[in-house]
Design brief:
heterodimer, A: 6-stranded mixed β-sheet, 5-stranded mixed β-sheet, 11 strands, 50% strand, B: 0% helix
Chain lengths: 115, 115
Amino acid sequence: GESVGLHLPTLSVQEGDNSIINCAYSNSASDYFIWYKQESGKGPQFIIDIRSNMDKRQGQRVTVLLNKTVKHLSLQIAATQPGDSAVYFCAENMSADTGRRALTFGSGTRLQVQP
Amino acid sequence: GAVVSQHPSWVICKSGTSVKIECRSLDFQATTMFWYRQFPKQSLMLMATSNEGSKATYEQGVEKDKFLINHASLTLSTLTVTSAHPEDSSFYICSATNQGNTEAFFGQGTRLTVV
């Protein structure tokens, strides 16, 4: 299943299934995007990033897809595990400003993995 | 990745008192640090941007006299919540970066409860 990241929605999946978390960004000038995982009571943890000159990037069990035309970003998690349960945020920036300008965070999606 | 340490991880204080939160970059020099506030089930909202050796830049609606930020060295920034009130209870998160570094590194957050 998939979910749109508005008002912290919840995506519930079965262990072993694939998860798709979506994010819409608003700044057309943004060219650097990051997905973060945040567990309860902890700070955001970097998962994967992508620049606007790419439309897909793969990591270990995760894939980020970028559609600049519709300003949409998605995170795919393969073979979802209970340890993947957390809130996931997309964040955007302009690469020329990284190091000086803060990331802008999306509203987040809670992923619940059912055993 | 680089390590950012935030202290304390949680604090309970009485209404009207002040609380100081520290954010340290342990293995790199942070030219810029960012302070975020996160209310339950919400995303991270930027409070201020802090550059070493200069005054912090506050986001609209954030009272600079209430949230004092000091970034006196390249490895330490502090946020002091002055005359705290229950509505200041929140999760405060810092992140640190250096110019040209595309990734921002986050602290583990501080849960502030004002009673």
